[in-house]
Write a structure and sequence with these properties.
It is a single chain. By secondary structure, this protein is of the alpha/beta class. The chain is built from nine helices and twelve strands. It has two domains: about 150 residues, HAD superfamily/HAD-like (Rossmann fold, 3-Layer(aba) Sandwich), CATH 3.40.50.1000; about 80 residues. The strands form two sheets. An eight-stranded mixed β-sheet has the order 5-4-3-2-1-10-11-12, with helices on both faces. The protein has a four-stranded antiparallel β-sheet with strand order 6-7-9-8. The longest helix is centred in the middle third of the chain and has 16 residues. The structure holds magnesium ion.
Length: about 260
Amino acid sequence: MARIKLLSTDFDGTLIEHGANLRCTAAMAEVLLHNKHQGGFWTINTGRSLWHAIEGLDEFHPPVPPDFLLTNEREIFHRTPEGRWVPEHHWNHTCMERHAELFSQADDLFAKIRTHTTEHPGINLVEENDEPSGVITSNEKVMEEFVAFLENEIRTHPDFSYQRNTIYLRFSHRDYHKGSALAELTRLIGLTRADVCAAGDHFNDIPMLDGLHASHVCCPSNAIPEVREIVLRSNGHIASKRAADGVAEAWHFFENAP
Ligand SMILES: [Mg+2]
């Protein structure tokens, strides 16, 4: 009897590594086929946008496609039998509305962020529809400094949060992250957290690795220390192998556990 009925994997750093081979490894391909064969679902849970995730998938070339894509750390798409990606309308629409409302009340905060990014080199403000959506920094040290500034500023905006992944940061509502998107997907397909395995490597993966939304959590050996600590605290598996081979190792660990 399969233990894992929904496998949620981050993409960058978890299935592929920057500068490395972008193809699915043999060990991961075997796990994806095995998972499919025993009726399990697979979702990629990423900070990438939909088109960027699809682009990455083309390069990754898995033996079976994912059943779902969770994108921008908060939106849900499911794959039709014809291979089209269809939005989960209710969730995605509510998500969009709640962000619009949050951001419309954040003029003072955005003004401070604009000033800060102008005065500090190495921080690029990303805007979508004339509204700040996040920042990209020149390196991770600059990101750490920006996060310290942002943490201080959002203390007066309790619903305002952010998702951070290496040099990328996206502003978000505190209720929307990889964990809540995964929980909604789990609910939509009639499963519970006991059926779910989540794998990630960086800060933006922590909300799906804290044990609240997935019983089985893991990270590849290249995960950052903060992720390793969360996985350890959630009784998860820290793989001895990197990226996709580490995820495959963890999948076997959970499936074969007594
Ligand atoms: Mg990652």
